[in-house]
From TrEMBL:
Residues 336-356 are annotated as: Disordered. InterPro entries: GerMN. This is Sporulation protein. Residues 337-350 have a biased composition (Basic and acidic residues). Residues 97-186, 247-336 form the GerMN domain. The lineage of its organism: Bacteria, Bacillati, Bacillota, Bacilli, Bacillales.
Amino acid sequence: MSKNKKAMVVTAATLATTVFLSGCGLFGGEDTKKIDPPQDVTLMENGDAVNEKVTTETNETGKEAVESSIQTELYLIDKNGYVVSQTMELPKKEGVAQQALEYLVANGPVEQMLPNGFRAVLPADTQMTVNIKNGTATVDFSKEFATYKKEDEKRILQAVTWTLTQFDSVDKVKLQLNGTPLEAMPVNGTPIGGDLSRADGINVDNSDVVDITNTKAVTVYYIGGEEGAYYYVPVTKRVSNDQNDTITAIVNELVEGPAYASNLLSDFQSSVKLLDEPKIEDGKVTLNFNESIFGSLEEKMVSEHLLNSLVLSMTEQEGVNSVALTVNGKADVLSESGEKLAEPVTRPEKVNTGSF
């Protein structure tokens, strides 16, 4: 799986998400105060290139003080119990993977940064060490780790796994408690069964599955939050193994939308359909929709929320890096901002970057 939902229409103006074309990604929305323009710096962390922002300000003595930060995805728990990434500016520090987990601890440094309705994942005072080798991050937690509430157990597994696997050097995760490998979680006994990975899913929804043995997992992105503070929530659903075309299955799940009681939304109308089989070439998937893909048939534009959900969902698939849209075979598709989608749209480096 690449690193790289009650149907209703949501107005995209309520979320600062901007689509960048010509090979760039979507999701703008950094709202950090800059005195001088930031300098782009590339850090290497266990072989990863890490985005660092350097901000220069003038302090009280008249001397320039240099501060640097790193954009990092932290998987937190929202008010509805979903595990959701929030991209935050963390201080530059050696060991960005361990720092990311340290910012998942309750009553820790993340508390002053939490968006409304979100909470930290790990119990207060939890400490950990992270050792990355051959694509596997081994996390050794202190005894405080075992004090979480049992209803958070699966959320913790997902949050730790997805936070660590955002880094290119990490594909799998192993958990330890005081140096002892965990075969099951310590509070409610959820089996771990070896290495953890994104293939295990996130916010898993099996509500419509009768026979799980004849299914495969796909992760799609629905809309969470509320007006003025929307964000994208990954949900792992099961589709039939008989559906050889996984891309079409993902589109169908987006159109079907989330479970009614989920508190999530989808911007896809129920009449949206693919007119042709998806085509994948050199990491680009081309999707040809009917006109129902337009939020407004008069304006013939694709809403930002629909586009963002589609691109995030598609690029969760191995080998898919960008999405090209056509409608009735024509490529003259406009985004809600009026930009022509002349080039394939890529996944953003970080998700949910807006300030809420």
